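#struct-pred
JK: can someone run the complex with zinc ion? inputs below
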Amino acid sequence: MIEDSLEYKAQVRLLADAGRLFAQRGWVPATAGNFSARLNEEQIVITVSGRHKGHLDDSGFMVVDLEGNILSPGKTPSAETFLHIIMYRRDPSIGAVLHTHSANATVLSRLFPYGLTLNDYVVLKAFPAITSHETSLPVPVFPNTQDVPQLAAQVDDYMNRHPGVSGYLVSGHGLYTWGRSVEAAIQHVEAFEFLFECEILSRRLSP
Ligand SMILES: [Zn+2]
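RT: done, structure tokens with the ligand placed:
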């Protein structure tokens, strides 16, 4: 069983640590958020539906393949599983996908229903392919929907046309970002959350 492999156990430990970190920061309130990591070319480990992400143990994770088939019998994956799968299918170098629901991400997604751009922040260098602070990073915002496969197709289409995107918001809902590893994806969540806080603060303080 893949659940007995060292790779599975290592990824589960890293994702559970991410959950505790994000819970301390208030980015995964109640049962919000979901996390996944790649196990191999065809399989990922993903959080099960409905758990608090600050208290994840082994029972909070399961295996699905990139077609969406459940490989851990008796467990139910996050309703948003296809938003994870679409990223692993797009890019074999993606090793983890993290989804959070912070207040700042939620507020910005409602203020900018057509997307926002983060301009000229040093922290933008946390993202791949960005080497200068004199740059801008578009953050698309997609309308929230219960039709997750349709939203996943919309994200996929957008990414085909805008290859430099490092994360996106779902309106009134939260952030999706990813990385080559769980550690890299955690850094991207932290960078986005810092930048969202800056955007909110600058709006609050500007006359
Ligand atoms: Zn969500």
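RT: quick notes.
The chain has one domain: 2-205.
Helices lie at 6-25, 81-90, 103-111, 148-161, 182-205.
JK: thanks, will look after standup
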